[in-house]
Amino acid sequence: MIDGTDRPPIERPAILVEGDRIAAAGRREDLRRVKGARELDFGDAVFLPGLVDCHNHLAADLTQKDWLSRLGSTDAELTLNAISNMSSDLRSGVTTLRCLGERNFLDMACKKAIESGRMLGPRLVVAGRSIRSTHGHGFLASPFDGPEEVRRAVRENIKAGANVIKILTTATVRGQGEIRSDYSKEEIFVAVEEAHRAGIRATAHCIGGVALEWCLEAGIDSIEHGYFITDREIDLLIKRDRWLILTPSPYLMEERLEALPLEMAEAFRRGQQEAGERMAAAIKGGVKFAVGSDAIHGRLAQEMEYLVKLGATERQAIIAGTRDGARVCGLEQDIGTLEPGRIADILAIEGNPLSDIQALQKVKAVICRGKLSYSQQGCRMTSRSK
Ligand SMILES: [Zn+2]
Question: What is the pLDDT of residues 248-295, one digit of tens each?
C-alpha cells in the first residue's frame, strides 16, 4: 500500500472501511478483525488513494476526430457524453475530478446526480462556465468582457454552485513574440477578488507571460498548463507558493495531435519541444504541482507517466495525482491519502508504480466512497463472520 502520505509503502496491507470512511489502514496483522465485516481480497494488488484529476472537462473528448463539431451538440447529447466519459474516468481510478468549464452548468447537474446516488461517477469539483474574453482562447469557455461582466459571470457561477472559478488568460499555443494576455489586469483582479470574497478558489488557464504575473499578483490559487513558463515565472510561482497544474498530453500525446485540425496540430508540434522543456524546468525548479488530463478520459495514469518522462520521480508523480491533487481541490481533509478518517476512495492496481509508473494503468479495482465501483475479474468477495 502506497498511502499517499509520502511514508514508505506498507507490505501486506489491509484497509478497514466503515460506511464511506476509512476506519483503519495498515499492516494486515495490526488491524483488528471486525465481526461480520465483508472482506474483499484483491490478491497481491497494490493499494493507492483514488486518483485526483485536477483539470478535466466532462462532455468533451479531444481524442475523438470530430470533437470540434461535437462541441456544438445539444445539451442532451453533451450530457450523455459526460456520463460515458465519467464512467471511463472512474474505472481508470479517478475518484475525484475537477471540471474546469462546461456549458450551461451541466457539471453542476452531474455533480448533484452523483452525490444523490442517481448516477455513478467520480466526486466532482465544478467551475460551471469557464470565463474568457470575446477574442480570447477557449473552445469550452464563455465570453465576458470588462470588469463588470466578469464580476457578474463569477457571481452567477457561484450562485449556480461553483466550487472554483476558472478564467482563461492566454492562448494555448505560443505565437510570435511575447505571450499576450487576453484579459486586462483589472479583469483578472476582479475575478480573483469575487471568488475569494465568496470563499472559493480561482484558477487561470495561462501558458506564461504577463498574465501569469497579474494572476499571481491578484492572489490566484493555481495556474493551469504553464507550457511556456520562464525561469523567472517559475521563481514567482514558488515565491507566492501557488500550484501549477501540469497537463502534458495536449502537447505530447500523438493521439490528441492527430485529432486536431491540421493547422492547429502544426502549431502544437512547433511548440512541442519547448513546452516539454518548460514543464520539465518547472518540475526541476521545485514548483508545487498537481496533474490533469484536460478533456480526455480514462487516461490520467498516462499523464502521470508523462510527468515521469518530464523528470518527476515516480513518487512525485503519485503524490501529484493523489495527495496534492486533493490539496488543490481544498479537499485534503477528506481525500488524497489512505488514513483513518478519510473517505474510502481506494485504487487497487497490478504492479508497483514506484518502480514502474505504467502499473497505474493496470487497474484491478476502484472503490469510491466505500463502495466497490469497478472490479476486474479475479477479485474474490467473501463474507466473514468470525
Ligand atoms: Zn481545460
Answer: 999 999 999 999 999 999 999 999 999 999 999 999 999 999 999 999
3-state secondary structure of 101: coil
Residue type for position 164 = V
> Which SS3 state, helix, strand or coil, does residue 335 take?
coil
Identify the residue whose cell numbers are 494488488: 45
Taking the centre of ligand 1 as the mean of its atom positions, its distance from the CA of residue 77, in whole angstroms, is: 20
CA-based nearest residue to 47, from 16, 6, 9: 9
Question: What is this structure's pTM?
Answer: 0.96
Query: What's the gap in Å between 309 CA and the centre of ligand 1?
Result: 22
Query: How far is Cα 7 from Cα 316, in angstroms, rounded to an integer?
Result: 12
Q: What is the whole-number distance in angstroms between the Cα of residue 360 and the centre of ligand 1? A: 23
| CB neighbour list of residue 154: distance below 8 Å, 6 or more residues apart | 131, 165, 190, 191, 194, 195
**What are the E-state strand segments in 263-370?**
288-291, 346-349, 363-368
For the chain, what is the mean pLDDT?
A: 95
204 CA → ligand 1 middle, Å: 10
Domain spanning 51-329: which CATH class is it, in words? alpha beta
- Say if residue 382's pLDDT is above 60: no
Tell me how far apart the alpha carbons of residues 153 and 359 are, in angstroms, rounded to a whole number: 42
Distance CA 276, CA 201 (A): 28
Distance 295 CA to ligand 1 centre (A): 6
Domain regions of the chain by residue span = 51-329
CB 305 within 8 A of CB 357: yes
What is the 68 CA–ligand 1 centroid distance (Å)? Answer: 14
